[in-house]
Design a protein that fits this description.
Elements lengths: L4 H14 L1 H4 L8 E6 L4 H12 L7 E3 L8 H11 L1 E6 H9 L4 H12 L5 E4 L2 H5 L5 H8 L5 E3 L9 H11 L7 H17 L4
Parallel strand pairs: 1-3, 1-4, 2-3, 4-5
Helix pairs in contact: 1-3, 4-6
Amino acid sequence: MGLGKSLQVVTLIHTLQTHPRLICKNRPIIDRILLIVPVNTLENWKAEFNKWLINIPKIVLYDFSSTGSGARKTLSERWEKSGGIMLVTHDTLSRAIKSQKNEDAAVCFKRVFITPGPDAVFIDEGHLMLKNRNTDISKVLFSMSTPRRIVLTGTPLQNNLHEFYQMANWVDKGCLGTEAEFEKKFASKIMTSLTVSFV
């Protein structure tokens, strides 16, 4: 709280959306940005975008979670075609991907959210969503093809190196080795150093 994460994200997204050629000279343009947030912060994120980007017509904000389930496929297709920022809670996203009874909607959601997916993904409070690889949301996040990934958290090393490893591994798979290698090379040494008393 109070670290300025949301304003930094709004600023970065504004730059990506309004100056695509400047940012992406020889790479595909970043048109579709997915922002996955906890349900209790959804309204705060909408307020931040409305506060800072209200007079910038180039940036379109979609709210997948607040849209009725029958209209979500249409909304997703509009976002896929036109670009912009898609806000979604992690619960809504995992339910849409996992338990979609409508075959057309299931294919659409897998295409726009998983493969090929959005151009960039931001996760707010990522340590909560990624810490357990067996949860539905974690499975969805680790199945995404999107290479541009940012995890936001105010507690990256708050007594839980496993959460830190999962976040780093999601952003850049294998950057810290396997979980066993990370445990041996880093985590065990850090935890041992915390128990050493300095006299």
